[in-house]
Amino acid sequence: MSRFVDRVTVHVTAGNGGHGCASIHREKFKPLGGPDGGNGGRGGSVILEVDPQVHTLLDFHFRPHLKATNGKPGEGGNREGKSGQDLVLKVPDGTVVLDTDGRMLADLVGAGTRFDAAQGGRGGRGNAALVSKARKAPGFALLGEEGQARDLVLELKSVADVGLVGFPSAGKSSLVSVLSAAKPKIADYPFTTLAPNLGVVSAGETTFTVADVPGLIPGASTGRGLGLDFLRHLERCAVLAHVVDCATLEPGRDPVSDVDALEAELAAYQPALAADTGLGDLAERPRIVVLNKADVPDAEELAEMVRPEFEARGWPVFVISAVAHTGLRELTFALADLVQKYRAERGTPVARRPVIRPIAIDESGFEVISDPDQPGGFIVRGPRPERWIKQTPFDNDEAVGYLADRLNRLGVEDELVKLGAVPGCPVTIGDVCFEWEPSLGTIDDVPVTGRGTDIRLERNERVGAAERRHQHDVRRGLASDDEDDE
């Protein structure tokens, strides 16, 4: 049995970028072929796309963890790695994307509308792309970046022209079943629908959709019952129809009090996307009152008694029986007229283009603060330094020297000196903590050594032959520690 799921939490992870390649062109009779390592491929992104054939978020309920493919590493011969394949996820029309803090990220309305849920990581640069005047044959390449990982909340707000509102067992599901070809669950005992039902209704040349919203009760706007779970399905409806049970036997209930109670809940519920839908608050939507179950004895008489009160509010009133199929034709054409009027006022809908709202980031900036966990230590924060740390293979001295040059050009060393950093103090950038060695100089100031090495980072702790001979003489008593080697 299929299930209707209208709210899920998904964990999306984009693909990692491929590593760059460190390669030197080797060919007979060409001893100086030069570097030819290619860049790594971009990681695949996770994209949400509206598909009219999808009507529920059920697939994400069973598969909440979604990941795109990684980019391939670069290769020699200036061959770039293959980019990862984007993971395109089909979502229903009317899906709203939120972050875990409840901030809206996207409102997906209209077939083909897309949203980049997670950006793929950039591929690392190969050594062919790192060639400079001072570093003609780099012996290293940069690592690929990790793909973005996010937790997102997907909410489905049904896109329907008419929303049926009413207490449980008011006959909304029965009305949808007789107006359209939909077959919702209907029974002769009191119960409430647990999922909205959508039906397509034709009245002459006008075709519109009707949403049976599960029964609301007083307090629904504050979270009582299932109100908040389904009130959002009314946000996009152009017309609201009150379906009233005129044959209820519950004490203290009558058609007027039922409608007043629901009106109070609709007025209290403020749709979060009022500005995007362009329909205003729920309290301002056109109303129509449907007095149902007129086939029950005394119900039709009660409906005629309350009709003048609803008409005095300016609301059209229709007395029907979903079971006996009476009054349905007049109701159908009245709803079609209201929907047609709304469509005429709204105009011809234009396909929505993707709206990109980038967050301004100053990547050139950084800050240096004191490390609260390490006395005398410092923490460097900023998009560029943190990204450079992730791209650097620390098992390669030349790559570490390249990182030092980049940080020096950015001004990190000058800022550390200004804040009183001393040699050997711990400095943390991203997930890496190292001992700071100031004034390494730039690559232009020192001779270039072999590939993969940097003379500025060499620490030769090997004991030479002269020192070993002197220590041997000291142990035999032929020399003292205070003697200077000549």
TrEMBL record:
| Cofactors | Mg(2+)
One GO process term, biological-process aspect: ribosome biogenesis
EC supergroup of this enzyme: hydrolase
Q: Which residues form the OBG-type G domain?
A: 160-340
Residues reported to bind GTP = 166-173, 191-195, 212-215, 292-295, 321-323
**Disordered as annotated region, ranges:** 65-86, 462-486
> Could you say which EC number(s) this protein's record lists?
3.6.5.-
Q: Pfam families from the entry?
A: DUF1967 (PF09269), GTP1_OBG (PF01018), MMR_HSR1 (PF01926)
Give the record's subunit note: Monomer.
The name under which this protein is listed is GTPase Obg
- Taxonomy-wise, where does this protein's organism fall, top ranks first? Bacteria, Bacillati, Actinomycetota, Actinomycetes, Mycobacteriales
